[in-house]
């Protein structure tokens, strides 16, 4: 079946994704407004009957001093990845982006390859002979994902390793932690927590921790804790205007697209987090906390309130986002993995991000430059 791809309006794009159970929060039109250093474009696929059957948010990052771009579709595009004629979906996209001046295209098919239950992850951490989750037998596996990876390689796509978002090293996590909410009561969800989580929630409640929803005016309080978290954990923080722009852009598209939660204790904000919602999928996006009064367990209280609200919104999944697949005791991210999986979540592996060089010489030169940086 032949398909036509063309630029579509934000309104057409939003109507398409709103009719689906969910898409990534990185594939809604408003996400382009969060990234001012990238030029955003919505593209759509039409079938022979003229119906819009696929869509994607493309972010175009200019190459310094040249009118050439890296084209990036984070956790997208939203197409039929199981289609037998996948080439008829991707080739028009490559042709379109090449005309736009792209020298390379990166995409992240939203396709799950493997899942590990909380018990399987716990066993992997406890086994000194296991170093990475990827080497452990998965609880469930999707064979069609391996077939898709082989097809992409035959088409000339190459999987890339995840990276940061500085310069051209854009990237999203390949491994995430998700808690299933669909068809479960809050009691059943809480029953899936490990003993430490349940104990900490009770401690927070007994200590008088109160979790409330915040607004735009509370973002400076969130950011103050976020800066403290960045210094403690050793990552480069985003500036406050980034979160203010994020709030303005996302809530303008839908009032519940982004929420802010703050955990208070004795008049002080001890922890805060942002939550994103698209359809039936809810993400814990950014978290922040102080080192003071950690014994009252504000982080567990905060996450439990967010999960309860996600359940009330009718979410099918609560997504803790990125985790490490390293299960060695000396890995500094292992504590975060334990925390997220402790909520009864599954470790989930996605197909990862894939590159297609439209200009091989320029693509190779840019990759070499970045590797030397």
TrEMBL record:
UniProt entry keywords in alphabetical sequence: Acyltransferase, Cell shape, Cell wall biogenesis/degradation, Peptidoglycan synthesis, Transferase
Gene3D superfamilies to which the protein is assigned, alphabetical: 3.40.630.30
Keyword Transferase: yes
Keyword Signal: no
GO molecular function: aminoacyltransferase activity
Domain of life (superkingdom): Bacteria
GO biological process: cell wall organization; peptidoglycan biosynthetic process; regulation of cell shape
Pfam family for this entry, one: FemAB
Family that this chain belongs to: Belongs to the FemABX family.
Protein name: Peptidoglycan bridge formation glycyltransferase FemA/FemB family protein
